[in-house]
Prior knowledge:
Rossmann fold; 6 strands; globular; 33% helix; alpha/beta; six-stranded mixed sheet; 196 residues
Amino acid sequence: xxxxxxxxxxxxxxxxxxxxxxxxxxxxxxxxxxxxxxxxxxxxxxxxxxxxxxxxxxxxxxxxxxxxxxxxxxxxxxxxxxxxxxxxxxxxxxxxxxxxxxxxxxxxxxxxxxxxxxxxxxxxxxxxxxxxxxxxxxxxxxxxxxxxxxxxxxxxxxxxxxxxxxxxxxxxxxxxxxxxxxxxxxxxxxxxxxxx
Length: 196
């Protein structure tokens, strides 16, 4: 079985300020850099090496990956965060209530120039499937974003399973998936900070 390690980027300035950060970007904080380096140490200590590495095209993701490993990597637009339209950079207090059926923000951001949850999920599934279908991709690291990662999780797990297995996706959390016969399987969530 192939393995995918899907990681959320480290803490950023916008995370610290509780600002909506999707298509917009902000730099990693000192804490974000330290946490990402800690994940790199964790991988080394557990003998986890990667055939290939990928990140979103956003700086906070590629900077996180460079703190984790020095190996070459490819940046892909398909791994970018959910686009929140005109809400970008605004206070997180402006986020809407979750759609009770979809357990996400649903289509809310479409009317404001952003994406729907389904659009984000579709591009994440497509991008990660294309990655894992390539030859010599037995163990892969991909660095993405909170909303994008959770929408990918919801393509595999039911809402109840997602809530139980991934209750909160902290910065620098790693989600481990198996990939076999063209299908992903959720294996575990690795929260390095909680393990130390």
